[in-house]
């Protein structure tokens, strides 16, 4: 396979949770310059790999499959503008009560680093779901409605290809591994 692909690995919340987040985002008074994410694009990024050689996709997909482990004890937290100083996204924080999500992120990060030389971000992993993206110069609402109070288990672990378009990025699943709770 030739070329390059922009890749990331994410946990997918159940469809019902994504639908509630999308409903919540529609209730937020967004100003001009903000674009709400489609319900099918809502996810929790664990490792953003960036541009990779297309020839590495199979190896990365295998690593994703090997790392897959059940993730329970997740719940939605407060809305947050990220990054705090110059926000570009409106997100909803995720609480990881069992720390299984953090463990999965660390294991996957270590595996990707060892196998393909990927360098993990230095900042602390901050689990969240991005619900809207801001264009440069946009200003978000100061008052945000409370988020839905939902607890859930992760549905799947997915390697995504991010295809950039004028209208925004499209996230195409390359490999999806169900995360069934035993």
Brief descriptors of the model:
182 residues; alpha+beta; Cyclic Phosphodiesterase, Chain: A; five-stranded antiparallel β-sheet; four-stranded antiparallel β-sheet; 3 helices; 9 strands; 23% helix; 38% strand
Distance between the termini: 36 Å
The major sheet is characterized as: 5 strands, antiparallel
Report the total helices. 3
Strand content: 35-45%
**What's the CATH H-level homologous superfamily?**
Cyclic phosphodiesterase
The unreliable regions are none
- In total, the number of strands is 9
Shape: globular
The appropriate CATH architecture is Alpha-Beta Complex
Secondary structure category: alpha+beta
CATH class: Alpha Beta
Strand order of the largest sheet: 2-6-5-4-7
The tally of domains stands at 1
Helix content: 10-25%
Q: Under CATH, the topology is which?
A: Cyclic Phosphodiesterase, Chain: A
The string of secondary-structure elements, in order, is EHEEHEEHEEEE
Q: Compute the average pLDDT.
A: 90
| Whole-angstrom Rg | 16 Å
């Amino acid at each position: 396979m030739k070329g390059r692909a922009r890749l990331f690995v994410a946990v997918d919340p159940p469809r019902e949770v994504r639908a509630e987040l999308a409903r919540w985002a529609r209730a937020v008074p967004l100003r001009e310059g903000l674009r709400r994410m489609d319900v099918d694009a809502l996810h929790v990024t664990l490792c953003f790999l960036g541009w990779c050689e297309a020839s590495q996709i199979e190896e990365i997909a295998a690593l994703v499959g090997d790392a897959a482990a059940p993730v329970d004890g997740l719940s939605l937290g407060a809305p947050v503008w990220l990054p705090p100083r110059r926000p570009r996204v409106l997100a909803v924080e995720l609480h990881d009560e069992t720390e299984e999500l953090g463990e999965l992120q660390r294991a996957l990060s270590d595996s990707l680093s060892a196998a393909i030389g990927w360098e993990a971000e230095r900042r602390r992993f901050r689990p969240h779901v991005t619900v809207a993206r801001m264009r440069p110069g946009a200003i978000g609402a100061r008052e945000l409605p409370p988020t839905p109070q939902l607890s859930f288990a992760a549905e799947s672990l997915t390697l995504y290809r991010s295809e950039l378009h004028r209208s925004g990025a499209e996230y195409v699943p390359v490999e999806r591994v169900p995360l069934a709770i035993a």
